[in-house]
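REQUEST FORM: STRUCTURE PREDICTION
Request ID: SP-0412
Submitted by: Lab K.M.
Chain count: 1
Length (residues): 137
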Amino acid sequence: MIFIVVKYQVKPESAEQWMDIVQPFTEATRAEAGNLWFEWSRSVENPNDYVLVEAFRDGDAGSAHVNSAHFPLGLEAMRPHLVATPRIISRCASPMVSWLRASGTLPRPEKRRRRELMKCFESGSLLIMTEISYSET
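STATUS: Completed
RESULT:
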């Protein structure tokens, strides 16, 4: 899974219209076969800051996204409304089996699974992620 978080600093005069500005890009991305989620949030501290949390099934799905016809159109639609270049964190993670509980523990069936070191390729560079290993004790 490719997991991405993007922070956007939107111009004050565009902040109220931001969701309308990104709506075509959002809808097109959510319709992609490999998209797992594409969710916007607005900062409670600064109403001009938006955060996008997105995930794609795998590297192929992420590549299809950035090479889609709507990707450059979305960037062009956003660009005039931004104060600065968005800040992006992108990581490769193992396929999600289930969500962690708020306590940080996995649901019971997942405790029996042991995770191995995983290699993921993203944008031509090797990312290595080690997951927590659980044992029955």
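NOTES: The helical segments are 18-30, 59-66, 70-78, 108-111.
Reviewed by: T.R.
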